[in-house]
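ok so I'm stuck.
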Amino acid sequence: MNRSSIKTWQVFLPLAILCLIVVFYHGLYGNPSYIPPVIVNTPAPDFIAPELYEEKGQRAPREMRLSDYKGKVVVLNFWASWCTECALEHPSLLEINQRYAQDPRFVMLGVNYQDKENPAKEYLAKHGNNFKHVRDFSGKISIDYGIYGVPETFVIDKQGMIRHKSIGPIIGQNYTHVVEDIIEPLLKGEALKG
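replied:
not stuck anymore, here's the structure
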């Protein structure tokens, strides 16, 4: 070997080893279940899912599709029966839905996350149920929305764009912010501030 090829290997070999160490380290300590988050101001991923709570006399759950609500402001809340913060925020969600129940431009949907059907139905029977819920027992909807935990809530505008994402319960100041600064302006067709 000539002198220049030896120098090249002396530089290349340590860099190659360093790259392998970085890749190996990332493989060991990186998050293998990393799901990229859904970004505000992007189209809301559409989904088709069975309704959680069937109406009396109904033989099978209805299939619900998010795109059926295009033209409405949609509050999409991910929750689970085992989630204590979900139980904490549930009265606020019932209140939001009651506030806008007569407004044809508004709809609220719950997405039951990583749960079993009976505990989910028992949760709704215990805490109240004045809006529609779908089942996401496979986790596909949650993956599409980048859900890491519950509760997480999205506000989707009339054009189907995500305009707000809340991580954690919608209570207190967060409740006021979501209602006054997000839902109200979207219903009026106004631009959101900031």
